[in-house]
Amino acid sequence: AIASDSGASAPSPIALTNVRTGLGADAIATALIENLYCLLGKLPQHATRNDWYMCLAYTVRDRMMERYVATLASITETNTAAKAVAYLSAEFLTGPHLGNSLVNLGIWQAVEEALSRVGQDDLSSLLDQEEEPGLGNGGLGRLAACYMDSLATLNVPAIGYGIRYEFGIFDQAIRDGWQVELTDKWLRFGNPWEIVRSEITFDVKLGGRTEPYYDEAGRYRMRWLSEKVVKGVAYDTPVPGYRVPTTNLLRLWKAEAAESFDFEAFNVGDYYRAVDEKIASETISKVLYPNDEPEAGKQLRLAQQYFFVSCSLQDMIRLLIMRGKPLDEFHSYWAAQLNDTHPSIAVAELMRLLVDEHAMEWDQAWAITQQTCGYTNHTLLAEALERWPLPLFARLLPRHLEIIYEINRRFLNDIRLRYPGDDQLLQRLSLIDEAGGKHMRMAHLASVGSHAINGVAALHTELLKQTLLSDFHRVAPEKFFNVTNGVTPRRWIALSNPNLSALITRKIGDRWLADLEHELEHLEPLAIDGDFQKEWQAIKADNKRVLAGLIKERTGIIIEPHSLFDIQVKRLHEYKRQHLNVLYLVTLFNKLRRVSSAAEIPRTVIFGGKAAPGYRMAKLIIKLINSVAAAINQDPVVSQVLKVVFLPDFNVKTSHHVYPAADLSEQISTAGKEASGTGNMKFAMNGALTIGTLDGANVEIRDAVGHENFFLFGLTAAEVERLKAEAYTPRSIYDSNAELREAIDLISSGFFSNGDRGLFQSLVESLITRDDYMLLADYQAYVECQQRVSQAYSDQNAWTRMSILNCARVGRFSSDRSIREYCRDIWNVRPIVPDER
Ligand code: B1H
């Protein structure tokens, strides 16, 4: 039976061949014309490209509804035992929906055929119409989207809960070599993928004070008299699994005024104040914070977090009650995963809902909260750890502050019993940092309130246990798990690299996209097959031509498709060391100006990525890349063998063309700093070789593909720490390495900045005097490793063999594997088989 989300029983299932559901070309063609007419009010002869995109999107969405409704029923109906996952994340970087939906529903060809029947021959131009929802900064938000794809594909019922930002991550333009930020108006032409659930709304209180009272049973209780209330409205986007009956949902909350008019103000004639209130409420879901680090002390950021967490938990309780289950079984029906600390206020909010709103005893509420929550840590960087100044926290969430004090009191008392007299330990574990101005430590709240804590790659989890959360590891080692990140092969191979996908299917059958872990390795024997190598090379060459076309269109730079495509795409950050890559480029430039370049392997070095608007050094690195690129590209000799490109506005959509075109993947972070990385996996799946440090998931990728098929360089995490402890002096490296000095001096000289010697001075200074990220320590090893890359590339057959092996051996980096591990180790959830519905 199919039930609606409102709990009412629905009419019997609609026939599969209905014009709104049929998956064949006939039904789709009819539906296109009908939707164009009924939803957009257009006849085919008047339809614009965007009209066609919109009616195609609606037509595809229609085709998900039956599975969507049925999946939802499995978590709303009484008599179902299925435990569901609530993935709580401040970011979901889904990327465009259309192409992915066609892949997952298996209707790509039917849609192409239907389009040609209605006179539209160019599916790719319609795919291009879609404005991507940029509701995330980078890896963390994209991981959440990959996990939603895998949850659905594995038939695990799940809801992704987050924020429907009106403005996502900014669009990046490059002017005079500098990054310029433009607002992302992704909703400008409407969003055909979402369904607004005007009836699913929750009130969220903010500010004010608390007050004790005695309830009817004479129990001493607390109530929260808030200063204001905002309303969250649910916007649902279906998430179809890959060729399975499950279609999950992404439920994003939009903030609205609790009352669209403040009638009291209106009645006393203060119409403008009434409207102001409305605007203030809507501000909460207005814009994504564009930093890949927390915004220190920003009240709005905390309000965003609390807003979406409160709506989500209230919704989860509503759904449980709808299923006819008692509240004390909450944890048997929900596993809530906290994607970093951004949703960690969930620990206190669930306690508040259970204790204050539903009158549950503290101990029982605490047991439920801990059993429900799991916490994923994504970074060890000190500056990326969320801490809220207590006064700010108290002002916005006075009741939660009390609850957290009580959680802390009980937690520390328990520690006192187990470790008598260790006051230092208590201070280090406390949820409150008492040093300086008092702060709330959100990673501690998440750790105490969860039954499981995980890092995102083996090395990262080890470091997490040894450093950031070592005390928590000491007092509760059983809570710790590793779940190495993964990426969905549906988007990152099938959709982005259709030709490679077709080749793989021709050779090993079509099961690999649903079982990458076990199937992809069947490619291995083909690595030495000459004919297969030729086909592999031809596809890579095609993909490089496509990217070359895109680069010409976006930057005007003409690149040589036969050159080695050496690519570094990721957020700009000093620890990711894009400027180490630049130091190598300047070194190469110096060398090529001196000696004949004839012997050099031609390279195109491509950068892409956004810098946080307030991160000055990251923006300066973008300027440096563009300045060095300009000098190299206009040098008549050097540009014969070397071109450098900064591809503006790197996002999910652009990235579809980037990963498949790479020969070399740059993963060169300072060891110990990149928690996992996920771009490293996308590149390898598409046959790029990696040049990288022993950091994040690189370690596991290298083990998987074979050490001989990976270009390793640089210090290990342990060596970095040791060197730091021994008083690292970058200047002595600068003094003793002539090539390095020449490169740095050329940057200082003003050569790349029209004689302006001041422009890059702060960057050069930081390298020579502090070099927090150890570029100079790794410089020589990197340059030499790049020489090994060039040599290896000169033997195309050997390179192709390594490329095939890289792809064939990275099956375990599918997000399906990651999600299976979360299900088994952390969530204790099982797939629902279709006939259980
Ligand atoms: C990652 C973040 C992050 N780690 C704060 N931490 C943010 C922190 O808006 N904020 O405040 C946003 C993002 N993002 C990344 O997560 C890691 O750097 C990558 O190494 C990792 O692959 C990715 C997914 O686990």
TrEMBL record:
<dbReference type="GO" id="GO:0005737">
    <property type="term" value="C:cytoplasm"/>
</dbReference>
<dbReference type="InterPro" id="IPR011833">
    <property type="entry name" value="Glycg_phsphrylas"/>
</dbReference>
<comment type="similarity">
    <text>Belongs to the glycogen phosphorylase family.</text>
</comment>
<dbReference type="GO" id="GO:0030170">
    <property type="term" value="F:pyridoxal phosphate binding"/>
</dbReference>
<dbReference type="GO" id="GO:0005980">
    <property type="term" value="P:glycogen catabolic process"/>
</dbReference>
<keyword id="KW-0328">Glycosyltransferase</keyword>
<keyword id="KW-0808">Transferase</keyword>
<dbReference type="InterPro" id="IPR000811">
    <property type="entry name" value="Glyco_trans_35"/>
</dbReference>
<keyword id="KW-0119">Carbohydrate metabolism</keyword>
<keyword id="KW-0321">Glycogen metabolism</keyword>
<dbReference type="InterPro" id="IPR035090">
    <property type="entry name" value="Pyridoxal_P_attach_site"/>
</dbReference>
<feature type="modified residue" description="N6-(pyridoxal phosphate)lysine">
    <location>
        <position position="682"/>
    </location>
</feature>
<comment type="function">
    <text>Allosteric enzyme that catalyzes the rate-limiting step in glycogen catabolism, the phosphorolytic cleavage of glycogen to produce glucose-1-phosphate, and plays a central role in maintaining cellular and organismal glucose homeostasis.</text>
</comment>
<comment type="function">
    <text>Phosphorylase is an important allosteric enzyme in carbohydrate metabolism. Enzymes from different sources differ in their regulatory mechanisms and in their natural substrates. However, all known phosphorylases share catalytic and structural properties.</text>
</comment>
<keyword id="KW-0663">Pyridoxal phosphate</keyword>
<dbReference type="Pfam" id="PF00343">
    <property type="entry name" value="Phosphorylase"/>
</dbReference>
<keyword id="KW-0597">Phosphoprotein</keyword>
<protein>
    <recommendedName>
        <fullName>Alpha-1,4 glucan phosphorylase</fullName>
        <ecNumber>2.4.1.1</ecNumber>
    </recommendedName>
</protein>
<dbReference type="GO" id="GO:0008184">
    <property type="term" value="F:glycogen phosphorylase activity"/>
</dbReference>
